[in-house]
Amino acid sequence: MKKVGFIDYFLDEWHAEKYPEWLEQASGGQYKVIYAYGKADSPSGTSNADWCANKGIELLGTIEEVVEKSDCLIVLSPDHPEFHEELSQLPLRSGKPTYIDKTFTPDRKTALALFELGRRYGTPMYSSSALRFASEYADIDREAIRTIASAGPGRFENYSIHQIEPIVSLMGNRPQRLMWIGTDNSPALIIDFGDGKQAEVRHFGWECPFSMTLNDASGHAKSIKVESDFFASFIEGLITFFETSKPLVEESETIAIITIIEYGMKAAESPYQWVELPG
Q1: Is 156 helix (H, G, I), strand (E, B) or coil?
Q2: Do the beta carbons of residue 64 and residue 85 sit within 8 Å?
Q3: 10-residue block means of pLDDT along the chain (279 residues)?
Q4: Residue 162 burial (CB < 10 Å; 0-12/13-18/19+)?
Q5: One domain for residues 102 and 220
Q6: Is residue 188, in this structure, part of any structural domain at all?
Q7: Are residues 74 and 152 in the same domain?
């Protein structure tokens, strides 16, 4: 059995709640979350000590202990990526397979620094939204795509990753510029990939499912509503990563995704104006 270590801002959150059971079931008991560290207790939920006691997971007092005792590592804090740089310092120096939860970092500069740190210490690592692994995207002809109109729920700050991740995986890692076209209640963004390729991201209420309409070079359209169990596919991929130490997502794609999110937030300050993206 391989021992998995959690490192989180606080442990009483949805991803930490679900991942242990999913990992153990999908791996047939070969991967199990044994250790956990939380920087702080949840401000509105269960303490780290009570959470670990309820889960049968050993709470450790330092990140160093989790890194030392675990075979592979998951840095969580999915809704607080501003803590990923701090929480990932020791994991990325460990040489042990490390997954860093979405959203990878709040800005491009930090994303570049974390990848460089992992590279310097030979630590295999990646980050992704689970939506990347939805089976509905698997058979799409990526070369033919010219336009994507994507829709989904949530706030731009922490939910745009779930639309932008699939868009970059389909359209490539070289977005050129973007423009904010949304409102306070319905954030929206146009992303120009050059060569006539463009994607639109729109956020609606929580009743809005993740969906996408694609147009190809000949003008034919295809509409997709994400209904597959993408978290199951994500967990299977995570286990494969732990076994092989081969990241499932290219660094260049993750950098492009974070760049779009960071500059999208900036573009919201000056709507309907193109904002050029760094290459």
Answers
A1: helix
A2: no
A3: 97 97 97 98 95 97 98 97 98 98 97 98 98 94 94 94 97 96 95 96 95 93 94 97 97 98 97 95
A4: buried
A5: no
A6: yes
A7: no
